Amino acid sequence: MLRIENVSTSFGKRKILEEVNFTVEDNSIIAITGKSGAGKTTLLGIISGLLKPDRGRVIYNGQDIFKWGDYRRSTFRNREIGFVFQFFNLLPDMTSYQNIVYPAILNPASRQIREQVDYLVEYLNLKAIIHQYPSTLSGGERQRVAIARAIINNPRLILADEPTGNLDEKSSQDIISLFKTLRDTKSMSIIIATHDERLVKNADTNYHIDDTVLTDRTPAPKGVRTAPKKTAKTAKKTAKKA
Ligand SMILES: Nc1ncnc2c1ncn2[C@@H]1O[C@H](COP(=O)(O)OP(=O)(O)OP(=O)(O)O)[C@@H](O)[C@H]1O
Ligand SMILES: [Mg+2]
Predict the structure, then answer these.
(1) Domain 2-241 class in CATH
(2) CB of 87 sitting under 6 A from ligand 1
(3) How many helical (H) and strand (E) elements, i.e. helices and strands, does the chain have?
């Protein structure tokens, strides 16, 4: 569905990502891990087309999204991508309900919004707070509203930045099951930036960013032994350190 090719980016003189490559398959959950400041949010920004990398390409359905004009790229974001921001970005003057349906108002193609809202309100347990404003919600409640908003347009790809960061055990489990249900029944793919081991365990693939380099850390299936995967770059770094 989506391919990241040789993406490098820096802020000023600081290199954040170097030569990052990976493919996002249909119906898959990918966890992106790495310590704070490693570049997880930056990578999600690049995938969504919000942040242009210094070098490299993001290919969606065979097309380079950074070759599109701004209008085409924002339509792509609205229709194909649901974004759960690390700090929610809920609109303060709108209630939970208004925040959730807002992306659907921008999308004239979606008709079954009412049913979709009812389903999400039920699933994410939002009934009691549906007419409250964000400033009156707890962190976990804001998080759940932000997740509902990301899903309302039935995107093909969800980008979720620390989606369980503010949630208790039970709410986290619900989010994990919701992501799996969306993958299995709606053919969505989900990329999650996270520190949460439970999310990583439930993902199909785990990419880890360390010192600008992204490597595949997906555990081999039980009974299969493989050598750790290394890119040319990590091999060079390891050689240097030794
Ligand atoms: N617009 C910017 N200008 C300058 N530096 C930036 C900018 N955006 C991000 N950075 C820096 O890039 C680095 C990567 O940031 P990023 O937000 O991607 O990290 P992260 O892996 O998401 O961390 P966390 O786990 O804390 O959310 C950080 O050191 C940050 O300070
Ligand atoms: Mg982040």
Answers:
(1) alpha beta
(2) no
(3) 8, 10
Domain map (residue ranges) of the chain: 2-241
Ligand nearest to the CA of 35: 1
Ligand 1 binding pocket includes 45 (Cβ within 6 Å) = no
Q: Which of helix, strand or coil describes residue 160?
A: strand
For the entire predicted model, the pTM comes to 0.86
* pLDDT tens sequence across 4-36: 999 999 999 999 999 999 999 999 999 999 999
The residue whose CA has the least distance to atom 9 of ligand 1 is 42
- Matching residue, tokens 């969606």: 60
Continuous segment of H or E residues that includes residue 56 = strand 55-60
Ligand having the closest approach to the CA of 43: 1
Element housing 23 (H / E) = strand 14-24
